[in-house]
Design brief:
Pfam family, one (chain B): GerA
Number of domains of chain A: 2
Shape of chain A: globular
Helix content of chain A: 25-40%
Largest sheet of chain B: 5 strands, antiparallel
Strand order of the largest sheet of chain B: 1-2-4-5-3
Largest sheet of chain A: 9 strands, mixed
Number of strands of chain A: 13
Organism (chain B): Paenibacillus faecis
Number of helices of chain B: 16
Family (chain B): Belongs to the GerABKA family.
Keywords (chain B): Membrane, Transmembrane, Transmembrane helix
Oligomer: heterodimer
Strand content of chain B: 5-15%
Order of helices and strands of chain A: HEEHEHEEHHEHHHEHHEEHEEEHHHHE
Distance between the termini of chain B: 38 Å
Protein name (chain B): Spore germination protein
Strand content of chain A: 25-35%
Distance between the termini of chain A: 111 Å
């Protein structure tokens, strides 16, 4: 027994030595990267230049972002660009200028240059989806009137990393104003592959002096020379950009799609006054119907709001009659918002960005199968859309009647 | 399977009180009838050691009959010698002087003397061999030899200076008894007896160590402890054949189930209340003379994570503290390795802003995160060990060096990142939360291989390491009881007192694996209802 245990110990010892030697083979350390070997990309943009891809990547300079000694001499981020026949090639060619390998997992914004968007976006999306480093939770936007590269050069105050500014700004404006829409990669791919729905992306433009925006002076002054602003939604026909919705239309679009968390709208009151209402919640239900042989869409919107500001005399908010009147005015207003965007898209672009085809496919799959080929050309432009808005005013803020009622004439 | 060792079955180890001890060569070891011959042999054997007191006293009318009183100075209590021996001797001497006319043989005088002494001394017994004589003499008893008799008397006069019952030093509590075991065997048994006054609390004593003859006691509650486990303890102790036992750690290494494991499979404590509680659960305590640390078998992993205070504080507090302790084990084991894995392999798991912060800190660091962590962990272990060994009055030097030099200077010099210092610090603090020192050392040691795995394979390596660890833990046994019980195998009723500690009135049964026969602590009703007899 004793002898056997010694033999066992010898064997264990031998195994241990063997493993110790084996670890020498592992010194390469598969896929190991120290934090100071990473170039953390926070925003990327792709432009089309002479049928080639031009990839621009905004990389954080960590020492400038998180150091205790605030306000270093360097910019908080740097931009690397590279061109290639494919986007993957461009990404790898970037190592010629970047000292470290670009690390994409923390990407927050992906900018599609307008030129690229017009030429078609599907081809390079596969790379973003396939590569393991890309998470699908970054937001995609389209630049308007500028290349993605130029857009990524603008320095921003408050959020020193421009990508963070874009990310937060997009989220906030989607949440409290509602003309923009956060679209993640998987949502975009869904829209692209979904029959009966065309993709939509938020537009991004540079305001002010573009040249001045690229220098540190842009963030040194209180009023910045240039800024980045989200402007309405970009309409895609399958994967190609074909036009833009303005701010009002974009908000109409958001109401149709439902889920407007918060927004603001006004209705006239008195002679010149306005009553502003704050939307706090909304649900929309889009149902497809077939009347005779013609498809028809019914939109039922349920919106809740609060009275936010009153500008006119004589509005008695204590009376339910007044509230009822305001509600019906708002219903018309929201309906109008929706109608205008539908009409514009039906007339001008003739692509179903609302997912009406999808609604028909769900309710009448047989009809959809027969007509999906000519849905955009034949049915969508003439589609009858019935809208029913149900607006409820829940609260009037911290006041009942406005002091304007009691003001001296 | 218990580790078997080569052993000699000798008569050295026996049960005191059941049969007198015999040396292997008892025939040559008998006392001589001649006193001087005896004393000569004793002096020779002991090398004339100066702390052995030998008093020869003439007795009887002729003053030629000598008796000899032998004791070890410092081990024997002089008062006891005076009270129970000298007084008798004096009394007898005066009596003999008064009865001069009656001629009495020296032999009968001696016999009478021994009989009278044994009347006054309750721990006396006769001796007729040198082996027993020396052992008794050197453990503080007094030996009385009479000229002309090959039989002497041993009188119990043990009484030496000891530390007394002091406060606990290794296992401190906010609420609970403060007393700790001391180095004295008898004091330790009495401390346990004082807590459990039940006739079924049994103590078996044996002596282990060919040279040291150390008293070792097995204590258990008959009827609650599993007799098979008690027998196994007895067997394993009997198999020990070594020259010396200086601390219970010697015993622990000889009787533990598995040697090649970082985890202790025998529990030790210096708290009598813990021993009492463990005995009441059906475990067996092993007391060793000369150390305040008493062993308990079988030991389960969760016992090392429980503190005695868990049973003295209210159940909700105790449960919270236990969860905190389990969390600390997790941190102390995996803290640095998870940090290494996440920052070198899985940067996508970090929140973006945190990543920027950590990346900024690491900009100037020359080492990989693994080397960085290894440096800091080793530094901490060195500091800790130095803190233990350092004389108390210069101990504060360690904290100055630790905080200033290692903490601040290393970060400012750009050798170590601040985040790593934070990780190492929280890991170190967490490892001190464990009430059992040997268990926290085990987790601290395992931290290093896990760090290496994390540095080479990331989280994948950590998971493989933890998996291997869990498999290893599940393979361990302590005296036949699965080490991971009651978690693996899962014993639902024992969950009342494993990760949580439910109120005492719910803890109606003892652990199933330990106390097979007598399992009811209390009738299983809430305290407000009338109790029914089971």
């Amino acid at each position: 027994m004793w002898k056997a245990s010694v033999l066992g110990m010898k064997r264990i010892g031998a195994l241990f030595v063997l493993f110790a030697f084996l670890t020498l083979l592992l010194s390469g350390c598969w896929n190991r990267r120290e934090l100071n070997e990473l170039a953390i990309a926070v925003a990327a943009g792709v432009d089309r230049v002479d049928d080639r891809y031009r990839l621009s990547v905004q990389v954080v300079v960590p020492g400038q972002v998180a150091s205790k000694k605030a306000g270093g001499s360097q910019a908080p981020a740097t931009l690397y660009t590279a061109e290639g026949d494919t986007i993957f090639e461009a990404a790898r060619r970037m190592t010629q200028v970047s000292p470290r390998k670009i690390y994409f997992s923390h990407l927050r914004m992906f900018l599609i240059g307008e030129s690229m968007a017009r030429a078609g976006i599907a081809k390079f999306l596969d790379f973003l989806m396939r590569d393991h480093e890309f998470r699908t939770d970054f937001y995609l936007v389209t630049t308007k009137g500028a290349t993605a590269e130029d857009t990524l050069k603008i320095m921003t105050p408050l959020e020193s990393i421009p990508a963070n500014k874009l990310f937060n700004s997009l989220q906030t404006s989607e949440r409290v104003w509602s003309p923009s829409l956060t679209v993640t990669l998987d949502e975009l791919i869904n829209d692209l592959s979904n029959e009966g729905k065309h993709p939509i992306l938020t537009g991004l433009e540079i305001t002010g002096n573009r040249e001045a925006g690229e220098t540190p002076e842009n963030v040194n002054a209180i009023k910045t020379d240039a800024n980045l602003r989200f402007v309405g939604l970009a309409i895609f026909k399958v994967d190609k950009l074909i036009g833009w919705l303005n701010e009002t239309e974009s908000r109409g679009y958001r109401y149709i799609k439902g889920g407007v968390k918060s927004s603001v709208a006004f209705v006239p009151c008195g002679d010149k006054g306005k009553v502003t209402l704050e939307t706090v919640r909304s649900h929309t239900k889009v149902t497809g119907k077939i009347l005779g042989s013609k498809p028809e869409i019914e939109i039922k919107a349920f919106v809740e709001g609060n009275v936010g500001a009153v500008e006119c005399r004589g509005l008695d908010l204590i009376q339910t009659k007044t509230i009822d009147e305001l509600e019906s005015k708002m219903e018309k207003k929201v309906e109008q918002l929706m109608k205008s965007v539908i009409a514009k898209v039906q007339e001008e672009y003739k692509v179903d960005i609302f997912g009406f085809g999808e609604a028909i496919r769900r309710s009448h799959p047989g009809f959809w199968r027969r007509h999906k080929e000519d849905w955009d050309d034949r049915f969508f432009p003439n589609l009858a859309v019935r809208i029913k808005v149900d607006y409820h005013i829940r609260r009037t803020g911290t006041l009942n009647n406005s002091f304007i009622n009691d003001m001296k004439e | 399977m218990p580790l078997r060792r080569k052993h000699r079955q000798t008569g050295e180890i026996g049960h005191q009180g059941k049969s007198p001890d015999h040396s292997p060569d008892s025939s040559e070891d008998k006392l001589f009838p001649d006193l001087q011959a005896n004393l000569k042999k004793i002096r020779q054997t002991l090398g004339n050691s100066s702390d052995i007191g030998i008093r020869e006293i003439p007795l009887g009318e002729s003053q030629k009959n000598y008796i000899a009183i032998l004791y070890t100075d410092g081990l024997a209590d002089q008062n006891k010698i005076y009270e129970s021996i000298m007084k008798t001797v004096a009394h007898l001497a005066s009596k003999a002087a008064g009865q001069q006319d009656q001629q009495s043989s020296p032999f009968s005088d001696g016999k009478r003397l021994l009989a009278e002494i044994s009347l006054y001394n309750q721990q006396s017994r006769t001796v007729n061999d040198f082996f027993t004589l020396f052992r008794s003499l050197l453990s503080g008893d007094t030996v009385i030899l009479v000229d002309g008799s090959a039989e002497g008397l041993i009188a119990g006069t043990k009484g030496w200076k000891d530390r007394g019952v002091m406060e606990t030093s290794a296992e401190n509590v906010v609420r609970g008894p403060r007393e700790a075991f001391s180095e004295s065997f008898r004091t330790n048994t009495s401390l346990i007896r004082r807590k459990i006054k039940d006739p079924n609390l049994w103590l078996e004593t044996m002596q282990i160590g060919r040279v040291t003859h150390t008293d070792v006691g097995i204590m258990y509650i008959n009827g609650i402890a599993n007799p098979e486990i008690v027998q196994e303890v007895r067997d394993r102790l009997n198999r020990i054949d070594v020259d010396s036992i200086l601390e219970s750690g010697y015993i622990e290494e000889f009787i533990q189930d598995t040697t090649f494991t970082p985890f202790p499979t025998i529990y030790n404590t210096e708290r009598p209340d813990v021993i009492a509680a463990e005995l009441l659960e059906g475990k067996v305590a092993i007391l060793v003379d000369g150390t305040p640390f008493v062993l308990v078998v079988p030991a389960l992993l969760i016992s090392f994570l429980h503190a005695s205070e868990d049973y003295y504080q209210r159940a909700d507090i105790s449960s919270f503290l236990r969860i905190l302790r389990y969390l600390s084990v997790f941190i102390s084991l995996l803290g640095p390795s998870i940090y290494i894995a996440v920052t070198t392999f899985h940067q996508e798991m970090l929140p973006t802003q945190l990543l920027f912060g950590l990346a900024a800190q690491r900009e100037q660091i020359p080492f990989p995160a693994f080397v960085e962590a290894l440096l800091m962990e080793l530094t901490f272990e060195i500091l800790r060990e130095a803190g233990v060994r350092l004389p108390k009055n210069i101990g504060s030097a360690i904290s100055i060096v630790g905080t200033l030099v290692i903490g601040q200077a290393a970060v400012e010099a750009g050798i170590i990142s601040a985040a790593m210092v934070i990780v190492v610090a929280i890991t170190a603090i967490s490892s001190f939360v464990l009430p059992a020192f040997n268990m926290s050392i085990a987790f601290r040691m395992l931290r290093f291989p896990l760090m290496a795995l994390a540095g080479s394979f990331g989280l994948f390596g950590i998971f493989v390491g933890v998996m291997a660890l869990i498999l290893h833990l599940c393979s361990l046994r302590s005296f036949g009881v699965p080490y991971m019980a009651p978690l693996a195998p899962l014993i639902p009723e024992s969950q009342k007192d494993s990760i949580l500690r439910l109120p005492h009135w719910l803890l109606s049964t003892r652990p199933r694996l330990l106390s097979k026969a007598n399992r009811t602590r209390r009738p299983g009703n809430p305290p407000k209802k009338s109790r029914s007899e089971n």
